[in-house]
Design goal:
Radius of gyration: 16 Å
Shape: globular
Helix content: 10-25%
Structural class: mainly beta
Number of strands: 15
Distance between the termini: 41 Å
Largest sheet: 8 strands, antiparallel
Oligomer: single chain
């Protein structure tokens, strides 16, 4: 366990010190974020989201208190089962619900796709079969990078571009982590850092 914690700390330090990036998660607590306290906690330097023992009426999110416009967002995420994702340039709604762009992730499906949560377009870009399925590490840690500059949106999964598109419906908003209603599920997030762009 000590070796695991040391490796996690060293990885997090190196990640956060990358030029121009600053951490959005301090590795200790959920300062700077808001979410249903029944669902989210920090374990060994990792954000753990779990719906075990909780029945959700709707998807629930851990949401940044700050909004962002143009940026490069980096994070690592792992999914035990079911459906999750990373929201960006999204709107906060009541009861820890959000609406907007999402880097989608679900069991053996959707990883790296661009989805519109609580919108009319659903899956906006679907490259999972041709790209995402070939690079995703199911039930293991995956590197996610989301770049937004003006109307240009790019998503990379484990270093491979899965989305490169233009859309101007939203140019600013919060970042959030998803737990999906349905079967009891778990998802983990770590090394979340952002570099804001002009």
């Amino acid at each position: 366990m000590k070796r695991f914690l040391l490796a996690a700390v060293l990885c997090s330090v190196a990640f956060a010190q990358d030029a121009g990036f600053r951490p959005l998660f301090n590795g200790k607590n959920l300062d700077g974020w808001e979410g249903d306290p029944r669902l989210w906690k920090v374990v060994d330097g990792v954000i753990e989201g779990s719906t075990e023992g909780v029945s959700l009426e709707h998807n629930s999110f851990l949401i940044t208190k700050q909004s962002f416009s143009n940026f490069v967002l980096r994070a690592q995420m792992k999914l035990r089962n079911h459906n999750s994702g990373i929201q960006f340039r999204s709107r906060r709604l009541p009861d820890f619900v959000v609406a907007g762009y999402q880097m989608d992730a679900a069991e053996d499906n959707h990883w790296g796709n661009l989805y519109e949560e609580k919108g009319t377009r659903g899956i906006m870009v679907n490259t999972y079969k041709d790209i995402g399925s070939k690079v995703v590490k199911l039930k293991d840690w995956n590197d996610v990078e989301i770049t937004c500059q003006g109307d240009h949106i790019q998503i990379k999964l484990n270093g491979t571009t899965t989305v490169d598109t233009h859309d101007s419906v939203s140019t600013s908003g919060i970042i959030a982590l998803q737990l999906h209603r349905g079967p009891a599920m778990k998802a983990w997030f770590r090394n979340i850092a952002i570099k804001e762009l002009n």
